[in-house]
Design brief:
mainly alpha; ABC transporter involved in vitamin B12 uptake, BtuC; two-stranded antiparallel ribbon
Length: 343
């Protein structure tokens, strides 16, 4: 039982990332009708927002410490962060330590601008083009963004630690009545799952309970009729593209301590996330979230040694295998709408 619970936790962790990326993909497809293969790159840019802010907060200068000497007996120089110099070691150190959560605030305007430029500068010209054209141009854009990140940040993963308060692990089993050390799980992965739940809930609440969201949902269902009512639905859809980019960016920021940011992480998640969207049903927001968590849990169980000893390599293909089975039995996905990607 403890192994099952641990795999469920691992699945929720993976599923959180899949669901957040798939949610943004579905928002863009549902509003603009664009198959955006550059969405994984937005996740990557978000992760590097965390890296960038961490580097900015760690800017330092050299000072001489008369209490220390080097191997020649000369006064040693030490690196002192500007924040610690300005605000003191405690406050400045705390700001540096919490650079990843603070990067959420940093990433939101960055991702909104990136999303706006991407949509207005390129993607708007492909609204009425075939989906194959959209895939090619956005995939090319993803490669360009990936190479830009590689040029400025290098090819190696960049460790971006979580705050000290969340670097340990929780004895989750004790909370459920198991023996101590039966289920040990990292704090930050639990934080990521809770963060994903909040963001997903906020997006659904925004679409359901705000006037802006209601108009967007109406436009997703019947864009032409909403336009005839005198509402500038294109402007609202552009804003939704920015919101989808911000969601992907925040997902990347919070994932940075789990998987050290690297230039190809967007591609790693993109293909899986598109499978999630197709399984959930193209254009279905609840379907994207449901499929994200479902496939994350299945992938986690398939990675168990007991399963791999019986079916070697199953952890590499389980998501695609499930996708084939679901699409053979439900061609529109779990919660897909009639007419989407048809005709």
């Amino acid at each position: 039982m403890d192994a099952i619970i641990l795999q469920i936790l691992n699945g929720l962790d993976k599923g959180s990332a899949y669901a957040l990326i798939a949610l943004g993909l579905t928002l863009i497809f549902g509003t603009l009708g664009v198959v955006n293969f550059a969405h994984g790159a937005l996740f990557m840019i978000g992760a590097f927002c965390a890296v960038t802010l961490s580097r900015i907060l760690n800017f330092s200068f050299e000072t001489i410490d008369p209490g220390k000497t080097d191997f020649l007996g000369n006064p040693a120089t030490v690196e002192t962060a500007y924040l610690e110099h300005w605000f003191g070691p405690e406050v400045g150190g705390a700001i540096i330590d919490w650079s990843v959560p603070l990067a959420i605030l940093f990433s939101i305007p960055v991702m909104l601008v990136v999303g706006f430029v991407m949509e207005r500068g390129l993607i708007k010209h492909f609204y009425k083009r075939e989906h194959a054209d959209q895939i090619l141009v956005t995939f090319g854009l993803a490669i360009v963004l990936q190479e830009i990140i590689k040029y400025f940040y290098g090819a190696n993963p960049i460790p971006t630690p979580a705050p000290d308060a969340f670097r340990g692990s929780l004895d989750f089993g004790v909370l459920l009545g198991f023996d101590p050390n039966a289920i040990i799980y990292p704090y930050w992965r639990l934080v990521y799952f809770l963060f994903a739940a909040v963001i997903i809930g906020a997006v659904f609440a925004f679409l359901r309970f705000t006037t802006f969201g209601m108009v967007v949902r109406a436009g997703m269902a019947d864009r032409e009729t909403v336009g005839l009512l005198g509402i500038n639905i294109d402007k609202r859809f552009t804003i939704m593209f920015g919101i989808a980019a911000a969601v992907a960016g925040m997902a990347g920021v919070m994932y940075a301590p789990i998987n050290s940011p690297n230039y190809h992480m967007g591609m790693d998640f993109l293909v899986l996330s598109f499978v999630v969207v197709v399984v959930g049903g193209m254009g279905s927001l609840p379907g994207a979230v449901l499929a994200g968590f479902l496939l994350g849990i299945l992938e986690s169980f398939a990675s168990m040694n007991e399963v791999k000893s019986i079916l070697p390599g199953i952890d590499q293909i389980i998501i695609y295998l499930v996708a084939i089975i679901i699409l053979l039995t439900r061609p529109r996905g779990l919660m897909g709408r009639k007419g989407v990607m048809e005709g």
